[in-house]
From TrEMBL:
Cofactor: L-ascorbate
Keyword Acetylation: no
Database matches in Pfam families: 2OG-FeII_Oxy_3 (PF13640)
Domain Fe2OG dioxygenase, first and last residues per copy: 82-179
Entry-linked Gene3D superfamilies: q2cbj1_9rhob like domain
Species assigned in the record: Sulfitobacter sediminilitoris
MF (Gene Ontology): dioxygenase activity; iron ion binding; L-ascorbic acid binding; oxidoreductase activity, acting on paired donors, with incorporation or reduction of molecular oxygen
Descriptive protein name: 2OG-Fe(II) oxygenase
Superkingdom, natural source: Bacteria
Keyword field: Dioxygenase, Iron, Metal-binding, Oxidoreductase, Vitamin C
Signal peptide: none
Length: 183
């Protein structure tokens, strides 16, 4: 059975607040789909790529360790690299922030090699309403833990979405671990 791996308190609230504050100083890009496609019916968010932000190298070090732990504990996938920068997403209620059901494996060079998706909950859960990350690892839906600092890891082929944010702003960080194609 395909499962979702959860790591509460993987980052402290202070670390999450620092990531939000630091990335807020960098101009954000409109979130696009794989292949640089734009469709606000499918996705409405703003992104900052962590590689573009000074002083955030420690975040990637932690993410690598967390992906390694989840892979050892549960998935046992053949992971070889992190081909893409982590992205910090901002989903705002003012513009209907959301991301419709999708999987993270796509036609792009890097997207085709995605094997594990890691999502870090940066916001305090009472800072927004809606904005739930829900993953469908098999025939059921699993709601990700909304606690600030919690990490959720799942196979990149799993369907998942972010429900519309109806109040406030949700911040999250996503990174992918890459490897040879699934067999």
């Amino acid at each position: 059975m395909i499962e979702v791996y959860s790591m509460p308190e993987a980052f402290t609230p202070a670390e999450c607040d620092l990531i939000i504050a630091t990335t807020a100083k960098v101009p954000a890009d409109e979130a696009l789909l794989v292949g640089r496609q734009r469709d606000h019916n499918l996705r409405q968010a703003e992104l900052v790529w962590l590689d573009d932000v000074d002083g955030m190298g420690w975040v990637m070090d932690r993410l690598i360790a967390l992906v390694s732990k989840s892979n050892r504990d549960l998935f046992d996938f053949d992971l070889r690299e992190f081909s893409e920068s982590p992205q910090v997403a901002r989903y705002q209620s003012s513009n209907g922030g959301h991301f419709a059901w999708h999987s993270d494996i796509g036609d792009g060079v890097a997207a085709a090699k995605r094997k594990l998706t890691l999502v870090l909950q940066l916001s305090k859960p009472d800072n927004y309403k809606g904005g739930d990350l829900e993953v469908m690892p098999s025939a059921h839906v699993v709601a990700a833990n909304r606690a600030q600092g919690c990490v959720t890891v799942f196979p990149s082929f799993s369907l998942h979405h972010v429900t519309p944010v109806t109040s406030g702003v949700r911040h999250s960080l996503t990174v992918w671990a890459h490897g040879p194609a699934f067999r």
